[in-house]
Amino acid sequence: MLASIEALLGWDERTMLPPAAAEYRAEQVAGLSGLIHERRTAPEVGHWLEQLSSGDWAEQASEDERATVRELRRQYQRQVRLPQSLVEELARTSVQGQQVWVEARRTNDFARFRPLLERTLRLKREQAEALGYEECLYDALLEDYEPGARTSQVARILGALRDELRPLVAGLAESAGRPRKEILARSFPVAAQEAFSREAAAAIGFDFQRGRLDVTAHPFCTRLGPDDCRITTRYNERAFAEAFFGTLHESGHGIYEQGLRTDQFGLPPGSAASLGVHESQSRMWENLVGRSRGFWQYFYPAAQRHFPAALSDVSLDEFVFCINGVEPSLIRIEADEATYNLHIIIRFELEQELLNDTLRVGDLPAAWNAKYEANLGIRPADDAHGVLQDIHWSAGLFGYFATYSLGNLFAAQLFEAAERDLGKLEEQFAAGRFDPLREWLTERVYRRGHCLPASQLMESVIGRPISHQQLISHLRRKLGPLYGI
Ligand code: ZN
To answer: Domains plus CATH for the chain?
Structure first.
């Protein structure tokens, strides 16, 4: 309950809070998170978890109870391994790091950010050593975001993905076909965007009786209670795709949260399995559903009604090509479905080198630019459009990026497994039927919470090992005909 109150303070801060109230809000959040940390790491909690893990209780406990004790014990043991002084130093450096990063990015001045990044890396190495690991330092940090995953395994899969994506993207760039990108930059009145986004979110299954959609600067999804899920978006009259696909993306996160068991709210059986699984759901609804031709066979007439000035002279096929255009670009969050993963792989490789100290922070901008050249064939003109673009490293989030690509891989594999059971999904989307897919996911993924490590849960649903192949075939199947290759 305390954690959900903390989430409520966070939601309010990012959607409603007047600027002058920020300072006292920081006090409220610091006080509450201190209280939560104290309760979570109290010695008696460790004692209870030990008692429950051994002896007679475990034998008569229900499956939910056993999963709860197992997972809480894993979290507890990680938390108590970190000395209080290190936890505080990490929190302080994260706040400072983000402040310095904002300025460094604004002034395009990597040198200004460098000392903070060096200090962050020293602390992250210390944290990884304290937590312990099997094969490498990075494993210890990855565990926070993708429990059970190993760096070597993720590196193998993402390496195979990179080797197939590069020629695919290069081939598309050489083809004659080009979408008319200006269409999506025409005037799309904000009120109509909001109405249309809500219609689509409700149609795919976001429940507005148990959730809200509000406006924010950096969209996110959060859950404030068993029946209270908040999603957010931002509107730009000249960028249709930003709000519409952003809303579908957050709706996907929301549909997952709303599909979790309410009777286990706050406990592992009622929680998401991992960040990667969470991202698989946002990407599923945003890309595999929302950018499919079937989806637009159903929704395009409504889109033309909402935006007659922008879309009346645009055919369905032309529109579908527009929203699926592929083009190497410098900024990750603006990247398309295919090149996005190359942005992630670059970060995943660099952050391991940084953590292992095989790459010096001073050499990072040059290494960044060289990787963009090698993977995407383009070079940032400055660090603001290069190494300084993401907030993650400044906040100490090392190990996070990989979960974005894992989410894309899980999504493609889940989609293929769902089609084995349900038949052609695009035909169902074209008829406005999104519930068979949602119910399939609810039963197999959402209702199972976090009782298994994410990779085990995914493999049990998918019925085969995690692989890059389904994502590659999905992209080839969709983009080949659009680009005429
Ligand atoms: Zn997301």
So the answer is: 2-108 (no CATH), 151-483 (1.10.1370.30)
